[in-house]
């Protein structure tokens, strides 16, 4: 009698396991087949995208999926300014004042990335419009600090910026809305640059050209660019290639923005997005900035080619379109 | 013994049913919760979007889901021109010649919607660049013919156009690429118009304004606009509201494009997208066209208000951004 009960219980358990397995498999197959038929025209819900193929770079779909899922709890209708500064209090104050004097409806917080490890940063404060300005001292003067996915960030959208360049407040809000509508998978901002291939095959850094047939761009610099926080997460991850990239950036003290453009286009297969404001952005362009030093263009060209080696391909995508505000009457 | 076997079989069946139910429910809950967390930042796969809420209009999510799924087998990297014409052979030939004289890489087919029911249309032909021009005679002279989802269309993208207006070939390709990248859920084209609310609450049709604070638009006319074929499908469906709309368009011989803008914004909750080409689009604007007749603006304003009644809300969304070609050097 006990043995018969045991048999019955075993049979029961077997039935349960077996059925669960079959039902689960059938359900998964059915829903995958259904999803496969649906294009990105419909955007109600999605699964994490996988990495687009380019040369020998494979990246880690595991890290990328994690980077995408990690920040979904954050709102996407507000943004954070991540502004890097190093011993230029006048430019910094000037830029902060310009950004805080008007209400920018979607601005949540300004984080000043204080790369001077020797001087204590000013205290945090709140602007008259209720925006918190938080000073975050870096533990080393590294350009990678600006691209670090600070766990205290409260928004999906991060506006990467420098202390000497800014969109006027209205235009910054417009650029953010453009990022939300058109540029979430792109570096979206005001400052375009080009990698152009020379006859011998080498890549050359340039300011781009508006000549017909060349009127395009393939990078948006991180002095003035919205980027989704998931890209900062992947950039700062333990992916082996990105580890080499970060070491390269620290060694050469340059090209973190070139690296970011490579990485975003590698992950998405898309180009960046140029957004022009109602008025030109302001560039305080100090005479001692990195980008005006002799040899700057050569150093940037070297990065372009070294990164092709490090990533194993040239991922930048040419984009011919830009976004501007306003209607045209016709 | 037989009774015990029956009991055992019944218990077994019960176990199977019970387990299947539980597993399926748990799996569905888990995957829905997972999907809910994922924003449209990730676009790899999606499920059909449901209709956004606006006033009393509910639409039919069933029809809309069907309209979305029906055309997924069609490529999204080519487009079809659907050009409406009525007894204007000179304008028609002029426009066809302009569009066919250069290679437009993504153009798949031109369908001329021949609304003259009394004259036999010309024969189909193939352009030197291999584009088929197909004449499709309407069975009635109705403006709804242009918005009919012809089962012979071979592409998801349909470029709605008239016989007297065109983008230059390069710009048409640019507008198509902009649709693909930024405007799949929008009426995307070259010709913007505005519905503006007057102090009394009535809506007024206008050419829009570039004055600060008003520099926006909420309609793109179908003389020059890309639209996804799924929207044509819903427009032509048995949804009761759309049936009244089509009857209205036939009765007034006007406003099919206004109706389309209402419907697309109702379905998506998004505005349209203005794309400016490298050069201005060509408008042959004959003196006897509908839009130059006296009373045109009043008739269009009447449509705006009548459609608010028919749809049960004002769904148009103001858009402040437009797309243009080329880089800006800074």
From TrEMBL, chains A, B:
It is found in: Membrane. InterPro entries: Exostosin, GT64_dom, Nucleotide-diphossugar_trans. GO terms for cellular component: membrane. Its main location: membrane. GO terms for molecular function: glycosyltransferase activity. Keywords: Disulfide bond, Membrane, Transferase, Transmembrane, Transmembrane helix. Gene3D superfamilies: Spore Coat Polysaccharide Biosynthesis Protein SpsA, Chain A (3.90.550.10). Residues 79-325 form the Glycosyl transferase domain. It holds the Pfam family Glyco_transf_64. It comes from the Eukaryota. The chain crosses the membrane at residues 9-30. This is Glycosyl transferase 64 domain-containing protein. It comes from Hypocrella siamensis. The lineage of its organism: Eukaryota, Fungi, Dikarya, Ascomycota, Pezizomycotina.
